[in-house]
Amino acid sequence: MESNLVMYEGEFRRIDEELRKLYQQTNAKVLFLIDKNGQLIASAGDTYNLDTTALASLTAGNIAATGGIARLLGEREFTVLFHEGDTDNIHITLIGERVILVVIFDQRSSLGLVRLRVKKSSEAIAKIFEEIAAKADREKSEGRLDESPFAEISDEDIDNLFR
Amino acid sequence: MSFINYSSREINCKIVYYGPGLCGKTTNLQFVYKKTKPEQKGKLISLATETERTLFFDFLPLALGDIRGFRVRFHLYTVPGQVFYAASRKLILKGVDGVVFVADSQIERMEANIESLEDLKINLADQGYDLEKLPYTIQYNKRDLPNVVPLTEIDGLLNTNNTPFFEGVAVNGAGVFETLKDVAKQVLFELKKHY
Q: pTM score, two decimals?
């Protein structure tokens, strides 16, 4: 069973920075980083007219289905998916079997450029997530997490959500 | 697997509605969607066949409010209930934080309920989960129909571990929010245990 993903300010900033860099290098329209379970972690570019939550969930479903096909064929994973549209294209990469990098681009960029840049960024992003996992393990074993929002959670807090 | 983001102060949790075909999983989500304020919900995504049977999953993101300064988001998913979509069902359980089992109360669906519950346990075990240790709620749906199994009997059949259960008539919303609230509560208390 996978452990929960806990993201702190410092790591988040590094990821954000990496995405911004990639955004500029690829000339993409928009970039997303999604958790394999369909939760949006970060994005770069113009997300204003996009339903990012739905996009994250559907992309994760897409990767999950492709992973299912891979296993049926005796492959471990298909780590890159590419969808070509009339104007926009989507390049999806599975990084470190944990997060999904989505690049949406049009004719101002090219598949070759996106592939090249994504490959380099993937390594940097994978490293950040390895560090996040290591940090979470360490803090869990030491039995502490910074300013946990859950320690004081009460029945009333939850009732309030459903009012 | 929930996602706790200290940077954006958000908690994301995944809740999966499981159960046999036509038991009312999608109907549960549709009612939640209908009754939630626009600012609290995203789009209800249904990957369904032309006959409105769920093909891959339904998805509804909810952001009901804040707890201790953290925005709490629940991502509700349903699985396709039909037996032959087994491979897809397994995928949707990945990273699940809480499960709702929607049982069809009609006598002729008891076997399908049992089969689906077994399927749930096997698929969870494949991912390293144990249903007895996971936040889990049961909804006995379609209680308004004439041919339903008495509550004590259906509960005796499907609920072996004193799991909280609710009677539901998802088409008119009876029991829908009670079920969701119960599983949400369990999910958040589970986080409290670990963090």
A: 0.91
Nearest residue to B138 via CA among B113, B111, B173, B172? B113
Could you tell me which of B178, B173, B142 has the C-alpha nearest to residue B30? B173
Give how far B175 is from chain A: nearest CA, Å: 13
Three-class secondary structure of residue B173 per DSSP:
coil
- pLDDT band of A146, cuts 50, 70, 90: low
**For the purposes of burial, counting CB atoms within 10 Å of the CB of A59, is it exposed (0-12), middle (13-18) or buried (19 or more)?**
buried
Per-residue pLDDT tens over the stretch B113-162: 999 999 999 999 998 999 999 999 999 999 999 999 999 999 999 999 99
Q: Is the ipTM of this complex over 0.95?
A: no
pLDDT, one tens digit per residue, over A83-120 is 999 999 999 999 988 899 999 999 999 999 999 999 99
> Which B-chain residues 71-130 have CB contacts (< 8 A) with chain A?
72, 75, 87-88, 90-92, 94-95, 127-129
In angstroms, the CA B86 to CA B71 distance is 34
A158 shares contact with chain B (CB less than 8 Å): yes
Measure in Å the smallest separation between the Cα of A133 and chain B Cα atoms. Answer: 12
Among A106, A113, A66, A67, which Cα is nearest to A90's? A106
d(CA A156, CA A141): 30
Task: Phi first, then psi: give them for residue B53, nearest 5 degrees.
Answer: -95, 140
